[in-house]
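Q: Joint fold for the lines below.
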Amino acid sequence: MTVGAPHRVVVIGGGFGGLFALRVLRRAPVEVTVIDRTNHHLFQPLLYQVATGILSAGEIAPPIRDVVRHQPRTTVVLGAVTAIDLTARTVTAHQGDSAHTLPYDSLIVAAGSETSYFGHDHLSRWAPGMKSIDDALELRGRIFGAFEMAEAESDERRRGEWLTFAVVGGGPTGVEMAGQIVELSQRSLQRNFRNFDPRSTRVVLFDGGTSILPTFGPRLAAKTRRDLERLGIEVHLDTLVTDIDDRGVDVRFGDGSTRRFAARTKIWAAGVKASALGRTLAEQSGADLDRNGRVQVLPDCSLPDHPEVFVVGDLMVLDDLPGVAEVAMQSGAHAARVIVRRQAKGGEGPGQPLRYHDLGSMATIARFKGVAKIGRIEIAGFVGWVAWLVVHLTFLTGFKNRVSALGHWTVSFLGRSRSERTITEQQIVARLAIEAQGDAGRTL
Amino acid sequence: MTVGAPHRVVVIGGGFGGLFALRVLRRAPVEVTVIDRTNHHLFQPLLYQVATGILSAGEIAPPIRDVVRHQPRTTVVLGAVTAIDLTARTVTAHQGDSAHTLPYDSLIVAAGSETSYFGHDHLSRWAPGMKSIDDALELRGRIFGAFEMAEAESDERRRGEWLTFAVVGGGPTGVEMAGQIVELSQRSLQRNFRNFDPRSTRVVLFDGGTSILPTFGPRLAAKTRRDLERLGIEVHLDTLVTDIDDRGVDVRFGDGSTRRFAARTKIWAAGVKASALGRTLAEQSGADLDRNGRVQVLPDCSLPDHPEVFVVGDLMVLDDLPGVAEVAMQSGAHAARVIVRRQAKGGEGPGQPLRYHDLGSMATIARFKGVAKIGRIEIAGFVGWVAWLVVHLTFLTGFKNRVSALGHWTVSFLGRSRSERTITEQQIVARLAIEAQGDAGRTL
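A: Joint structure:
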């Protein structure tokens, strides 16, 4: 029952939430604009495989334009959203100095989250997060660069610092990164060095809580911890990271004692905060913000008093749903469905409440070792790994042209291969600058 | 007839020359050290495919350490060679501020060549060369970024500038780059943009000579030129590029007239100069340098009065051999064979002269269009393309783990796919800075 000009839907963010919304809107009689800071969607669950040399960036980051190329009524805008005006119903996106203001009839905010250093942003210099392709390429250069520095170092103690990797955060990303660094040092780098055995690599994992992978429940968490320790990873729980610099990490344990861990390479997988757009939405609509900056929404994912504005995914608070890909996908698709139904039936009344179907959580620790929690079913070990593999392969192959990623995976899981180990000269120069002056910029 | 300490061979450079030398030295009773500025060998003939989004960096740049992992007597040093002392028989390599001096008994200098701007190095800012992974990733970001800028641009004339690509240099690299930019705009970017048709992309190719691909002979050169023009590429021969800035290229034609071409993206494939190590070798040995800085060697590839020092590949002048991969491979292997024979028989006399077997030249213009010159046989069109494909696939599969590159190729040649289109946020920011301030740094 559309009358006059077509209904304009603006989607902020091309992550899981945004992409699933776009998919639902595909055949609806609406004009869609999706805005993202980058040119690509990011298959974030596999970002750690880019950081550790298994997959190439392109294999997990298809251009958003290409994903929606068969949706002629969908326009992609590369830009950073700097303002939302709920009264005027406009979104302002910046590309460098030039601003574009887009009017909307319906808005889906799927702006996601970013790395949080809990107010200590200077730590980002020494411990990059794991949220973007830039992060992953930066870490890839640092990880493989650390082994290069170790080979060139003649002092045993200093070499040990280059061969120590500190991972902060015991969620899936931290656990998977720690596991992959062990895997690559034990298997992929075999016979690559003459001055040390890469199997002497040390990986230390810190977490502030009392358990790793808390969302997987105590049994799987304990099992995973044992698996990590069997791989040689030192797991320190109930541990607060108090500082990070070029040479190491300072921590305070639960008993109040402190200790310094010498480690040249640090990875921050400890926390996320919601996009800053949450605050502007809350201020204008009166919605509540939680302490991570996420916006409390109504059961249909819309803002109070703004049935035309939806907040989905990591930026949304609803029913204690976790900040995982599956929630983003389902809430993004749900918001789009509410819009489509309204278009078909007219009216702006509240939509159906989101009913979340928990498809479970999964993580892989190392080759042939995974954990999965699907409803009440808990799986660990080889079967958990197979479950993880099947689900991720299914998703990946859902993208067109992911054939080569499949090839990479097969080769890399069965063999020792890690073909994406390129360090740019820019990264080498930056690496050497750290050594010389204790100075590190972003180096990718 | 080795006596006492093992014979020490130092190889400078892990390109085709160095790698083929290492292969010959594999089973010889010598200690080998290979020094390179980067961590990877580079399969340079396919660099343009990284720059245009077909292959990932890892697929053409295997780590040198990994290539020689089964050669326990071969050590890889990541560093830049800053000095060679022919009297003391030492090589000095720098890693940042720290220097390492390595003694040698035999030396193979395979340091190759770098992009030459013929004394106008400021042009590198606006027109990156095509010699390294850094170059290719930089150009990839600029090429795909230009289409993003075109989509955001509302002024028709300015959009045209973003959709114009200028390639300087009509050798194989320039021809292949020009062809691939057309291919990607005609096929891969289909339906990706809403504000313009990517088929309106304009590619201009400049060369100072009277023919493109001069080494292929007049018949194939003329045929290739017709093929390029049929693809819509504007070919300007006998044309001198006099300046390049953020917005375009100034040229002077053979008849003395001048013209400016507005083009936001410029690629420099016009010239190479030999590594600066050529000069230090010439000064110390009295060998002649040609105008490109290459070193005249004796028939066995050694320096005059220094039978223990070999110069191979792009850095070598011998019998008018061209600066191509095949010459580097054969001369690198030859130098290593001379060393191995001496080790077996004793003595330091002159080695056998290099006998070069010309296996021909090949280039690919677009899908299903290639040219190949093998001895007196000249092939063009589909058969030329098949010849090119077979040779390059054979080389690529010679690397371990190149399976996925094969997969990428198959998909990309038969379909429209170009999966490696990731632009980093760092590149986007730099791209926008060009637009805003006419300022461009290296952005990868």
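Q: Anything notable?
A: The longest helix of chain B spans residues 325-345. The domain at 121-270+361-437 of chain B is CATH 3.50.50.100 (FAD/NAD(P)-binding domain).
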